[in-house]
Amino acid sequence: MSEVFEGYERQYCELSTNLSRKCNAAGTVLDEEQKSKEISELQSGLDEADVLIRKMDLEARSLQPGVKAMLLAKLREYKSDLTKLKREVKKLASAKSSQTAHEELLESGLANAHMASADQRERLTMSTERLNQSSDRIKESRRAVFETEELGVSILQDLHQQRETLLNSHAKLHGVDDAIDKSKKVLTSMSRRMSKNKWILASLIGALVLAIILILYYKLSH
């Protein structure tokens, strides 16, 4: 397993344990200011956990297929746990927001029951719209970051596949070279045998011619 992945995993497990403990503790806090502070810390921790998850995902996808499959399966469990934790923090934040809004409306109604005006309602509406617009811009920025990281993962996968293709091509070329060398050796051996056979045949023919000449000479001399 990759040491880099193990380092990210260790950081994530420690962070996840701390976040779960803080989330459980925040549910029992009665002081609104303290509760707001703890919810803010939880949300920051969740962002950090998201970053670690993405780093582990990138590292896992750059490894060999066998190891990659095992690590991605583990990552799915981490993502599922993180999603559950996000839902718990969201519930805390929603409950706190609802309670705060109710208290603010109640105080405002008691203090200004006879002084409400269209101008105040308009200012409140404009403030809410600005908050919504800011929230939307933050979501768009996060989505752009996620898309960029997904593109990086895709490019990394393509490069890994191209590397495997090049390695396979190199192995095939090496096999072709071996086959060519073997063919050269066979052809060289055949050529030597043919040359040897030619010399043997020439020697036999020369011996036959010499024998015929000797026979003719013997007959003619007697």
Strand content is under 5%
Radius of gyration, CA atoms, in whole angstroms:
42 Å
Order of helices and strands: HHHH
Number of helices: 4
Number of strands: 0
Which spans have pLDDT < 50 for at least 5 consecutive residues? 98-111
Report, as a whole number of angstroms, the end-to-end distance.
100 Å
Mean pLDDT: 79
Structural class, from helix and strand content? mainly alpha
The shape, in one word, is rod-shaped
Helix content: over 70%
Characterize the largest beta sheet: strand count, sense, and whether it forms a barrel.
none
Walk me through what this model shows.
The structure is a single chain. The chain has helices spanning 3-26, 32-61, 65-111, 118-221. Helix 1 (3-26) runs antiparallel to helix 2 (32-61), helix 1 packs parallel to helix 3 (65-111) and helix 2 runs parallel beside helix 4 (118-221). Residues 98-111 have low confidence and may be disordered. The protein is mostly helical and 222 residues long. The longest helix has 104 residues, at 118-221. It is built from 4 helices and no strands. The protein is 92% helix and 0% strand.
